[in-house]
Amino acid sequence: MSFSSDEVNFLVYRYLQESGFLHSAYVFGIESHISQSNINGALVPAAALLTILQKGLLYTEVEWSVGEDGEVARPIEGLSLIDAVMPEVKPPKPVVKTEPGKPGAVDSSVSAGGNQNSGAKPEIKIEPGTAAAGAAAGNKTAGSNTGTSTPTDQSTSEVDSSGNAANTDSTYTGNNGAGGNQASAAGTNSTSTPAAGDSTAAGAAQKKSQNSNEAGSSSGGNGGNANATSTDDAASSTSTNGNSSTSSSVEQPSSGVNPAGGTVSTSNPDAASAGGASSAAGAKAPGGAVTIRVGAQGNNVQAGSSTAQSSAPSGTISSSTGGGAGTPAALVPMDIDESIEIPESKARVLRGHESEVFICAWNPSRDLLASGSGDSTARIWDMSDANANSNQLVLRHCIQKGGAEVPSNKDVTSLDWNCNGSLLATGSYDGYARIWKTDGRLASTLGQHKGPIFALKWNKCGNYILSAGVDKTTIIWDASTGQCTQQFAFHSAPALDVDWQTNQAFASCSTDQRIHVCRLGVNEPIKTFKGHTNEVNAIKWCPQGQLLASCSDDMTLKIWSMSRDRCCHDLQAHSKEIYTIKWSPTGPGTNNPNTNLILASASFDSTVRLWDVERGSCIHTLTKHTEPVYSVAFSPDGKHLASGSFDKCVHIWSTQTGQLVHSYKGTGGIFEVCWNSKGTKVGASASDGSVFVLDLRKF
User: Fold this and answer.
1) CA 20 to 30 Å from 345, out of 66, 266, 553, 555?
2) What 3-state DSSP class applies to 377?
3) 372-409: b (≥16 Cβ within 10 Å) or e
4) What 3-state DSSP class applies to 62?
5) Are 464 and 457 in contact (CB under 8 A)?
């Protein structure tokens, strides 16, 4: 008999997927290199790990029940898994005594310790207070803790969906991960089984975490698994006609800002310090990852393995031909010059979220910053100069349960403002999308997905919303009515990201390695791109809508055109998974027509790369980060790029020179970075529940 660590890791990976812990499965898969194993997942049946554990438990019961002579001396039934692995629980074997004329006779009246037992069969007992009892009790209670947390009392103004307001001084007790239904990256305490593909993560996950399930398991995580744990099914309250049984409320605390650098106690401290991140993000995710989809790894960028590029300024490696295939040169991160560190006086740290914050986005017309978190809330922060207190609106994502309105306890994985900033759309792991007004009132609830939503986008006109979910579908919603206009079911695995090409056409990507381009009113994809060999994490149309960029866990970045069936460029330079990509707001048809169009990619190899898409080459490699990079964002003029990593740092780079010009280190791993419309402020969201804003004026 023999088995390898790869086989063990694969069975654990499949168990996490089948149980609905998609974020944890994603992170575990990344760290254990599941994709590099030779195991054919299609041949492994569902619940394989549980099956082999059951067989092992039965064997242990038989082993403990049979004496050395092969006779059943003391049958043992109902042996628990914890009892089976604890040596002090194993009963003593009866002494085998051989008497003349009675070979092999068993004297069961004498125990191993020599105490007379009157012939009684040995019993397995775990006395209270023993180590075995403690372990068993710990096992039984793990995951049963409600894990609720109560923020500091503060006077709030609550507004329900009808617009009625009431002042309260009560505290809100919400789920903080443990005993809840989150399995997100970086800091989540959850141990319960998520529903119908529910997890966090980002990841994230951020931004979205959304691993494809192998044959024998459903995209929901527990379908097809006879041993899957029973859970609250988020899809059970989904309405197919657009009407929803869910409801949401909003609270407006007087203030949620703490001075930068101050000591703040949070209900979910950052548990993902360098090299210690577990479960996600993801996302993507994210959508994750997570999106919240996440997969943090504590790998630095081959520090010290090469000195060839150590002379590049500010941690940058410049290249005009770096897009070729092959093993990339080792990248050496360097220390940050103190002269470029953003002072605490230019950073505003916003506290209020009770769990990791996977996503944030600026209002396009006002200095309002929206954030979405694993605490089942989104928040709108007033960051205008006139508001020194950074007042926040709390958008609680609630569902109807037992005739009462209760928090959904599911991650808010995605959010997006419409073109004029009058409405905010959010997507959640509870399977619902919601539309909110800037005063925090709920305008519509969109219910058609049968599981978590990973991505959500408004079109440019603001009349349609596009969403992608774990149910393998994408949906176009009528924003004015909240009704499903058309549902597209072309993917064979969870859809991870979507992006509008025009006001009626869009692209979607999935863990099925495919990219579909669809149009409203057409019942088949108008184009399908194939070429990636692992799940496709993100897609983005260029500002002109002519080229589509995609990034994947296969470590490649591909550029596609509607006029070609194969990719225009296959950019291979990253050494690990590429999590996200962004186009610069430059080139013909933009506000910066005289600046060249470039593409940025962020990878788990801790680097960011800037690409000249026309030539298919890498312009700059940005190497300051020491942990996976989850987000990049261009300034409105395209001259700067912000990047956020799980090393807790936000870096601001010059896109022309590739040099690091500003840097700030927060208190948690960074899931998202974004610029305001004026290009004067950068917002960031982190794994420890913090959100912060960097004011880049007067630098």
Assistant:
1) 266
2) strand
3) bbbbbbbbbbbbeeeeeebbbbbbbbbbeeeeeeebbb
4) helix
5) no
Total residue count of the chain as it appears in this document: 699
Q: 20-30 burial, b if ≥16 CB within 10 A, otherwise e?
A: bbbbbbbbbbb
Q: How far apart are CA 496 and CA 285, in angstroms?
A: 9
Classified as helix, coil or strand, 676 is coil
Q: What is the DSSP string of 478-514?
A: ETTT--EEEEE---SS-EEEEEESSSSEEEEEETTSE
Of 181-185, 337-341, 665-669, which range is least confident?
181-185
Phi, psi of 694 (to 5 degrees): -105, 125
Whole-Å CA distances, 218 to 228, 493, 543: 11, 9, 36
> What is the full DSSP assignment across 13-56?
HHHHHHTT-HHHHHHHHHHTTGGGS---GGGSPTTHHHHHHHHH
Cα distances (Å, whole numbers) of residue 584 to 187, 527, 579, 593: 32, 25, 17, 11
Q: Specify the DSSP class assigned to residue 617.
A: E
Integer CA distances (angstroms), 194 to 49, 423, 452, 579, in order = 19, 30, 10, 24
Label residue 478 exposed, middle or buried (CB < 10 Å: 0-12, 13-18, 19+): middle
8 A C-beta contact, residue 274 and residue 298: yes
For the chain, how far is it from start to end, CA to CA, in angstroms? 66
* pTM of the shown model: 0.60
Distance CA 155, CA 245 (A): 29
The arithmetic mean of pLDDT across residues 421-426, rounded, is: 98
The answer to whether residues 18 and 217 touch, using CB atoms and an 8 Å cutoff, is yes
> What are the Cα distances from residue 147, in Å, to 189, 258, 278?
8, 25, 19
Instruction: Give Cα 484 distance to the centre of its chain.
Output: 26
3-state DSSP call for residue 397?
strand
- Residue 620 corresponds to which tokens in the numbers above? 């700059």
Q: What is the pLDDT of residues 352-369, one digit of tens each?
A: 999 999 999 999 999 999
SS (H, E, C) 85-149: HCHHHCCCCCCECCECCECCCECCCECCCCCECCCCCCCCCCCCCCHHHHHHHHHHHCCCCCCEE
pLDDT of residue 78: 67
| pLDDT exceeds cutoff 90 at 343 | yes
Query: For tokens 């305008």, what's the residue?
Result: 443
Q: What is the mean pLDDT of residues 678-687?
A: 97
Q: Which residues on adjacent β-strands are paired with residue 568?
A: none
Contact 201, 358 (CB under 8 A): yes
Q: Which residue has the tokens 């960031």?
A: 684
| CB environment 440-466: b (16+ within 10 A), e (fewer) | bbbbbbbbbbbbbbbbbbbbeebbbbb
Beta strand pairing status for 649-654 and 453-458? unpaired
**C-beta separation of 412 from 430 below 8 A:** no
Rounded to 10°, the helix 22-31/5-18 angle is: 160
Check whether 183 has a pLDDT greater than 50: no
Residue 676: both structure tokens together: 């305001």
Kindly report the number of other CB atoms within 10 A of residue 243's CB atom: 10
